[in-house]
Amino acid sequence: MPPDQHVNGELTVGENIADLSEVTVALRSYRLSLGDRQLPVLDGFTGEQRFFLGCAQVWRAKVRDEKVRSRLLQDPHSPVEFRVNGVVSNLPEYYTAFDVKESDKLFRPPTNASESGEPTHGPGSLRAAVLRRCEGFVEGTDLGLVRPAGRQCCVEGAQFFDDSG
To answer: 119: Cβ–Cβ under 8 A, 6 or more apart, which residues?
Structure first.
């Protein structure tokens, strides 16, 4: 992204929440699909680390600065580096999987604990809100993700609807 450009958070907030929700639901589904099984370490990466690497690889892209400038003005999606780094910096599971420390680039310290004791910033804060609103959205089966018919999940204006017909 060009250094003189910035993301318009008001334009992208809905999609940012959707990106976080998608990875949160996918991670929960991944864990449910494993049951009690532990996946082996492959090429030095645990199963959960490979999950996060797969999520990041989906967004690999090379975009010209002119296109980025244009998208920043009208696209409700954040640039790809924020669709990855913004999501994982809000997931405590990522911090655990990669042993993220305060000195690491993606570390976000929790601040201002809410009444429930959950952080309002840093890993887990936005994710906690997503999970509270989406409780029951993922059902445990060997197939992973299940969206019960008619189930709706709303988070700060973002909505996920059952699209099974």
So the answer is: 110, 111, 112, 113, 125, 128
